[in-house]
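Exam prep: given the inputs below (a chain plus flavin-adenine dinucleotide), describe the expected output before reading on.
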Amino acid sequence: MVEFFDATVETVEHVTGDLYLLRLRDCEALASSQPGQFAMLRPRSWQVDPVLARPFSIFRTSGDRVDFLIRTVGRGTDSLVRCNAGERIDVLGPVGTAFPSPSHGPTVLVAGGVGLAPIGLWIDRADDGMRADATLIYGARTADDLVFLDELSQRVAVVVTTEDGSFGRKGLVTDEMVSLLDGCAEVLTCGPTRMMAHVARLAGEARVSCHVSLEARMACGRGICLGCAVPGVAGPLLVCRDGPVLPAGHVDWEQVLV
Ligand SMILES: Cc1cc2nc3c(=O)[nH]c(=O)nc-3n(C[C@H](O)[C@H](O)[C@H](O)COP(=O)(O)OP(=O)(O)OC[C@H]3O[C@@H](n4cnc5c(N)ncnc54)[C@H](O)[C@@H]3O)c2cc1C
Ligand code: FES
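Solution:
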C-alpha cells in the first residue's frame, strides 16, 4: 500500500487569478507517476485544522521535483498556497488510476480549468508521434483563467475556448469537439463534472473511446473510508481506488449529476 512520505515546499508561485503553482522537492516517490494519478497533500503546519489531506493531480515532474496546479476554493487550498519555502508537507502518492496509453490514432484531450493538470502530464509524457496526433481543447471562463498556453501550443495543437469570448473561440469546449471526433481513437478529459458528462455523451454518440478523470471529496485517499464513492453503472465507484480515471461508460452520469 502507498504510504505518506515527507516532502519540502520549494516554491509557491501565483500564476493568475485563483491559480497557483506549488513545487515540492524530495518527491522521488512521485517521479514515475502516470498521467491522471494524484497525491494527497497535508502541510505539517495544519496540525489539527484542516484535519484531512487534500487530493491534487500530478501536473509535472522533474527529478525529485513535482509541480501541482492549485485553484484556491476553500480553507485547505488557501492555506496550502500560503506555505513558505522549506515547509514540510506529508504526501501520499502516487494514488489512483492513470489515463490509458494511447491507442494508435488521433487523441482528443479536453481540459476545463484546473482539469488541465493531469492532461498536462499526459502531454509531457507523450512521445513526439503521440503529440503530433493529439489536439487539446482547453476551456476556461475567461482569458485570465488560461495558463501555460505558449508552452502547450509548442507541444500539441491547441483549440482554446472561453465562455466570454475574451480569448480563442467563444463558447464551451464541447462546441469544438464534434468536428474532431471523426477518425478520433480516444478522448481523454478532466474538468468540471458537468463538462465531462457532456464530453462523455458526445464521445459515446460518435462511438469513440473516452476516459474521464473524476473529482470527489476525499478523506483517506486509499479506499478505506468510502467517502469518495460516486454512482457507477454497476454499483458505487471509489474515485480514489477505482479512479480517478475511469472509462466514461462506467459512470452513471445521470446519478452523478443529481
Ligand atoms: C483526484 C483529484 C484530483 C484533483 N486535482 C486537483 C488539481 O490538480 N488542482 C486543484 O486545484 N484541485 C484539484 N482537485 C480538487 C481539490 O482536491 C479540491 O479543490 C480541494 O480538496 C478543496 O479543498 P479546500 O479545503 O480548499 O476546500 P473546502 O473548504 O473543503 O471546500 C470548498 C468548496 O470546494 C468544494 N470542493 C472541495 N473539494 C472538492 C472536490 N474534491 N471536488 C469538488 N468540489 C470540491 C466544496 O464543496 C466547497 O464548495 C482534485 C480532486 C481530486 C479528487
Ligand atoms: S477517499 Fe477514502 S475511500 Fe476514497
